[in-house]
TrEMBL record:
GO terms for biological process: Mo-molybdopterin cofactor biosynthetic process. One of its GO terms (molecular function) is metal ion binding. CDD domains: MoeA. The lineage of its organism: Bacteria, Pseudomonadati, Pseudomonadota, Betaproteobacteria, Burkholderiales. This is Molybdopterin molybdenumtransferase.
Length: 403
């Protein structure tokens, strides 16, 4: 069976990125994938300006100045040309007068009519934000192939970008499969369960604005029905996600359906949970992910594999498409680990004076949704590797758990 990182690299390096580009109004662009490098249009700051409410002064040898006017943000400032001993009242963000040596913040100043006084000599060049000190015209402001963050919206607005070139959204449909699934709001018949995977995965993926998501509903375990639904959806969608029916039971028809309509590119990984994860395609344009039915396995394979692959297809660079992880110290130990599968257990972070620790939740089986709901992270335990207390382990944050 294939290792997780091998499968992830395969998915990321063989994803055919979308090519369609559209201009998206800035206010709607958060979460979309930037399709072109955008350049600095104006130096930042655009003009020398004051970092403080205070007094712009000429000649730092002295302790007193005469105030000859006021400049507020947005005011014309060049008409003030300071001579030694002159100052102007200046507000934060206002353009600088000519021949200003420093801005002295008002807390240090005593004012008496038109005279200001300070107690100790003040340094030159203070509290002035100089034109171009942050960004210079023509440099790359934001490089392509990244999701646009709220902060990047601010940066783009500051540079006057009213629209941004973004890759078209990926059209995704999420289906659940299984004769045992009962829609919410209906009473459960004997040995039936509610469909928890679909609302969970839809809610998870709706956080990503580069996806245009629809729900395909729950499909019965029938080969012909599955094939019909796959063909219909593949004619309009870029990506299809199915949960359930991916394993080896006689009602697990998804692999067969995909094989008959398209191609299975890979099936089965040495990971826990998520062993029966697979992917393939229908035609040249529709990627299909088969997620295991066990709820925790469906969540973990979305986080670790399907979402990174969709980011890549949507135009994100390989580096940025990889799921984010960081290190935490194990608050537990594991000995005689014989598992050949890379294990991603549910963990909770504890931040104390000795650093960041991760402890394991007690509900670890892949049908136990409480573990993933009460957890903060998936804790990576490499195959056949023992873990000592305080050893650093990779952890992958769960969607929304650290917000
Ligand atoms: N003989 C073997 N049996 C199983 C293997 C195996 O390798 N050999 N793998 C196990 C693993 S690991 C997993 S994970 C599951 C995955 O099976 P499927 O993808 O075929 O999923 P189902 O059999 O349809 O369902 C598994 C489990 O999950 C429940 N389920 C399914 N869909 C939903 C849903 N939308 N919401 C909530 N719960 C759902 C379903 O009722 C089952 O309990 O196979 C193991 N078996
Ligand atoms: O590996 Mo399965 O995906 O856990 O229960």
């Amino acid at each position: 069976m294939r290792d997780y990182y091998d499968a992830l690299n395969d998915l990321l390096s063989n994803a055919l990125s979308t090519q369609d580009i559209e201009e998206v109004p800035l206010e709607q662009a958060v979460g979309h994938i930037l399709a072109k490098d955008l350049l600095v249009q104006y130096p930042a700051p655009q003009f020398d300006n004051s970092a403080m409410d205070g007094y712009a002064v000429n000649d730092m040898q002295r302790l007193t100045w005469e105030v000859i006017g006021t400049i507020a943000a947005g005011d014309e400032s060049a008409q003030f040309d300071l001579k030694p001993g002159q100052a102007v009242r200046i507000l934060t963000g206002a353009g600088m007068p000519k021949h200003c040596d420093s801005v002295i913040q008002q807390e240090l100043v005593e004012r008496d009519g038109d005279r200001i006084r300070i107690k100790e000599a003040f340094a030159a060049g203070k509290n002035i934000r100089y034109m171009g000190e942050e960004l210079q015209q023509g440099e790359v402001l934001l490089d392509a192939n990244r999701a646009i963050t709220p902060a990047a919206i601010g940066l783009l607005a500051s540079q006057g970008y009213a629209t941004v070139p973004c890759f078209a959204k990926l059209k995704l449909t999420v289906f659940s499969t299984g004769d045992e699934l009962t829609p919410l709001g209906q009473a459960l018949a004997i040995n039936q369960i509610y469909d928890s995977n679909r609302p969970m995965l839809l809610s998870f993926l709706k956080r990503y604005r580069f996806l245009e998501i629809s729900s395909g509903g729950a499909i019965e375990d029938k080969l012909e029905t599955l094939k019909t639904r796959i063909s219909e959806a593949a004619s309009t969608q870029d990506v299809l996600i199915f949960t359930g029916g991916a394993s080896v039971g006689e009602k697990d028809y998804l692999k067969q359906a995909l094989e008959e309509l398209g191609e299975i590119e890979h099936w089965k990984l040495a990971i826990k949970p998520g062993k029966p994860f697979g992917w393939g395609k229908v035609g040249t344009n529709t990627k299909v992910f088969l997620l295991p039915g066990n709820p925790v396995a469906s969540y973990a394979t979305t986080l670790l594999l399907a979402l990174p692959a969709m980011k890549r297809i949507a135009g994100v660079s390989i580096d940025k498409a990889k799921p984010f992880s960081f290190k935490a110290k194990a608050a537990f130990d594991i000995s005689q680990n014989k598992s050949i599968r890379r294990d991603f257990r549910r963990g909770r972070l504890v931040n104390n004076e000795e650093g960041l620790w991760v402890e394991l939740l007690s509900t670890q089986d892949s049908h136990m949704l409480s573990g993933i709901s009460y957890g903060d992270v998936l804790v990576e335990i490499p195959p056949q590797a023992d873990v000592k207390t305080a050893q650093l382990l990779n952890v992958y944050p769960l969607a929304g758990a650290l917000d």
